[in-house]
Amino acid sequence: MNGYMEYMDIMGGGRPASRRPRMAREDRAKLFAPFAALRGLEESSRARETRFVPRPDMAEDRQEQLDRRLRALRPGDRVTVTFFQRRVWDGPEELGEIHTVSGRYQGTRTSPGVMVLDSARITLRDVLDIGSR
User: Fold this and answer.
1) 3-class secondary-structure state, position 63
2) How confident is the model at residue 111, as a pLDDT?
3) What are the structural domains of the chain?
4) C or N terminus of the chain, fewer CB within 10 Å?
5) CA angle, 67 as apex, 72 and 117 as ends, to 5°?
6) Between the CA of residue 126 and those of 32, 96, 119, what are the distances in Å?
7) Mean pLDDT of 81-96
8) pTM of the model
């Protein structure tokens, strides 16, 4: 009981005044944020978990249908394009991911074979579907 009695004068006395200015709550929270010693490790390990798919084969009639849709597009048309993006560069088979992007059609560059949207540039060889919005 003796130890308890030694602190009776400070118990219930409130918080002591600090000589430092008070820190904003947001700044204080940053002090306790987790420390990432290996920056980028998490993204890298997630990328390795990605399952890549082989480039889809395009039937000749499907390719003709896409060509007609592409020729019917006018600059400013809003379109949704599904395309294949190659991710694995070694090996005999093309492996990658299927993506979909929407935007305004800007035009086609025939020399490099690129479809230009306001949000992306897509190689015509990689286009799988063209839809309008």
Assistant:
1) helix
2) 79
3) 53-132 (2.30.30)
4) N
5) 65
6) 46, 11, 16
7) 84
8) 0.60
